[in-house]
Each structure stands twice: as C-alpha cells, then as structure tokens.
From TrEMBL:
Native organism: Shinella curvata
Name under which the protein is recorded: TetR/AcrR family transcriptional regulator
Sequence ranges assigned to domain HTH tetR-type in this UniProt record: 2-62
Segments of the chain annotated as binding DNA: 25-44
InterPro entries assigned to the protein according to its UniProt record, in alphabetical order: Homeodomain-like_sf, HTH-type_TetR-like_transc_reg, HTH_TetR, Rv0078-like_C
Alphabetically ordered keywords of this record: DNA-binding
Keyword DNA-binding: yes
One Pfam family, short name: TetR_C_41
UniProt keyword DNA-binding present: yes
Lineage: Bacteria, Pseudomonadati, Pseudomonadota, Alphaproteobacteria, Hyphomicrobiales
SUPFAM superfamilies in the record: Homeodomain-like
C-alpha cells in the first residue's frame, strides 16, 4: 500500500507541476504508474486529497532545505533570517511555485492551516523563544513573533509566485522581509 501511495504521489507531483492541478487527469496519472482510480481513492479519497499529500511532501522538503541553509549561517538570528529568505526564494522554483504557492492555496485553502506550516510555525516559535532568552530579540510574545515571521515569509513567497515577473519582485520582497524582521531585534542591526 505504501508503494502505491509513493507511486501516486510521484506521478501527481509530475502531472501537477507540468499541467497544473485542474488540467491533470487522474486517469492519465493512475495509468502512468499502472494503478487504477480505485487505488487513488483508497489512498487519498479524491484528487484534492492527492494534492494535499503532494503539497505536504514538497512543503516539508522546502522546510528541510531552509533549515539546511540556516544551519550554514553563523548565529541564531542570522540563521532564522536566512531560513525565511530561503523559503521566499523557493518561490522561483517552478514546481514549488505552481503546486505549493498557486494551486495549493486555490484548492486546499489557507496555507497557514496546513499541517506542514503548523510544524514550521512551532519550530520558529522555539527559535524565537531562544532568541528572546538570549536577549537578541525584544521580549515580545514568542508565538506572535513566530506567526508574524512565518506569515510574512509565506505571504512574500505567495506574492513572488503570483507576480508577472517573480525575479523582479524577489529582491524587493527580501529587502522588505529583512527590514520587517530586524524590527524584532533588541538592538539595531
């Protein structure tokens, strides 16, 4: 059963990236991996459930990539900022752009309510708490700060993805994100 799930997610990921959610045919997708619509319905309920699984997989990969980038930067504050910027920059990736940032919200609703986003929020809250305890970030409510940082990065990525010229929008977004985020610092950068 896990093998079927993996096959379906892989095929859907390819189809959704190439054609978009609405144009991707479930018959073509299942036939491409030698399965039936029944296997799709059994594993995911429907096409929307399959999209949710694909979005979760990609969004989780995005979080791991951002974390790896943050780990390569000196200092907890700089790492947190680098992770947010990395997430925003991923909006230029065509697969991320189409599946996670355009089709995902249109079909699945508010991304801040997705399980993968909830996990990222919790990780960010813990980092903010540590930064507050170390006197790097102002003594504000850690959850509020984490929600604002995460929400800003998410909405910035959504804007980049939806813009007519993402590469032109990206530097403006990053500059504003950095300016917003540094407002949380206890001492000016």
């Amino acid at each position: 059963m896990e093998e079927n799930r993996t096959k379906l997610i892989g095929a859907a990921r390819k189809a959704f990236a190439e054609k978009g959610y609405s144009a991707a045919s479930m018959d073509d997708l299942t036939a491409a991996v030698g399965l039936t619509r029944g296997a799709l319905y059994h594993n995911f309920g429907d096409k929307r459930g399959l999209l949710a699984a694909v979005v979760h997989q990609i969004d989780t990969e995005m979080a791991f990539r951002a974390k790896a980038i943050g780990e390569g930067v000196a200092g907890d504050w700089n790492a947190l900022l680098a992770e947010g910027i990395a997430y925003i920059e991923m909006a230029l990736d065509p697969e991320v752009q189409r599946i996670v940032l355009l089709d995902g919200p249109a079909v699945l609703g508010d991304p801040s309510q997705w399980p993968s986003q909830s996990h990222c929020l919790e990780v960010t809250r813990i980092k903010v708490e540590r930064l507050i305890a170390d006197g790097i970030v102002k003594p504000v409510d850690a959850e509020a700060a984490a929600r604002l940082l995460s929400g800003t990065a998410l909405n910035a990525a959504l804007w980049v993805a939806a813009s007519d010229n993402p590469k032109d929008v990206l530097p403006k977004v990053i500059e504003a994100f950095e300016a917003f985020a540094t407002g949380l610092l206890a001492r000016p950068a």
